[in-house]
Each structure stands twice: as C-alpha cells, then as structure tokens.
Amino acid sequence: MKKLLQFFLISLTIVGCSSMQLEAVSSSQDETQRILALGLSHAENLIEAKKLKDNHTVSVVTGQLMKAENERIQAIIDVEKIAEYSQLINVSNDNSKFTAPKISESKRIGVLDDEYDYQDYFLQGTKDNNSLIQHQLHLSLKYNLRERRNYSHANVCDKWQRCDDGKKIDVSLSSTNVSGCTPSSCNYTEVMELNLTDDILRGNMDSGLSLRLFSKKETSKVNISSAYIKAYLKATE
Which of 15, 141, 177, 215 could hold 149 in an S-S bridge, CB 3.0 to 4.6 Å? Predict the structure, then answer.
C-alpha cells in the first residue's frame, strides 16, 4: 500500500511538471502572437518582449520573434529570387519544354587548395501528349581525386537533412571527362541526369530540395533552393 501511494505521488508530480511545461510553451506562443499582431517593427517587438513577467518567458518569446523576423526577411529574398529565376527560364517547343537557368556552386571537401567539389545543375521539364511533365535534374560534378567516384544513386533528404532513409533516385550517367592527371590524382567531371517526380518537387517546394549522391567511397550533397523550384514549377503551369 505504501509503495502504491509513493507511485501515485510520483505520477502526480510528473503530470504536474508536464502540465507546467505545456502551459509555459503555450503561454510563450500566445505572447509571441500577441506582440506580432501589434504591427510593430522588429526592434519594437523585442522591447515589448522585455516587458514580460519572467526571464524565461522573455528569452523564449525573444527567440520566437527572432525566428519570425528571419522568416519574414527570407520570404522577401525568396520573392526577389523567384522573379529573377522566372525571367531566365526558357520555354520552347510550343510551350512543351521548360529549362531553368544553370546554377554553379563550389563546396570545400578538404583542407587543401584543390579539395573542392564543383557543381553545375539545372532543372528541365518536358510535357508529353497527355500534358504530363517529366522533370529531370541535369547535374555536372567536377572533382580532383585518385579515382572516379562513379555515382550510382541519390537519396532525397528530409527537412532535418537526414538522407539515408530517403526516397532513392537512380542516377543516369551521360558522360565522364578526365583531365589534368598527375601521379596522384586527376580532374574528373561526371555529367548525369536524375528523374524527379512532381511529388518530390512540390513536396520540397517550401523548404528546398536536398539530395545526397552515393558512390562506393564518397557522397556529395546537392541543395536546390525553394525559390528556384518555385520559379521552375510556376513556369510549367
């Protein structure tokens, strides 16, 4: 009986603490929405947050206000980038072929001067007789290594950038170029295509699409921005 009473008291304590945590989170979210609804500037929002009753709530609400401000700024940037990309999309073949502009990026993969991956990519869509659009990612990867990577497939990453269990996409290698060889390495360029479904593009339209490419020894990451995808899909409509 005594043990049962102790268990009951511990359970009540846990439930009470959980309720307090939920109430605190709910209260901070309510305060954040209240402040945002005032229509003040971001600086004025932060001043308003400092008037709250305890330091913990001030800290949480301030963080939420900072996040909201960052999202607002990013939305403005995205609108500008969407307009920029939209002007560069080429529509041809009697409105049945859509080619987005080429994006070039470089990513450091080591500490030496030549330890970079160079990426060029663009999205292209072709409308078939049933008005369905087949989407392809055209991708070129250039790197300096002892051996060619020979990519086999790619996985779609989730919003937390976890890629191992994502949807698998086969890689179709169209060409390989080798140049600038030394006794220890060569410059390799692998040109490939990946077929992307409409669901993949639209499902990652707001967050951006991240793909991890796999070979026997190496992996590479390709990140396609939300604004780029939105501009491309808008052109295909």
Answer: 215
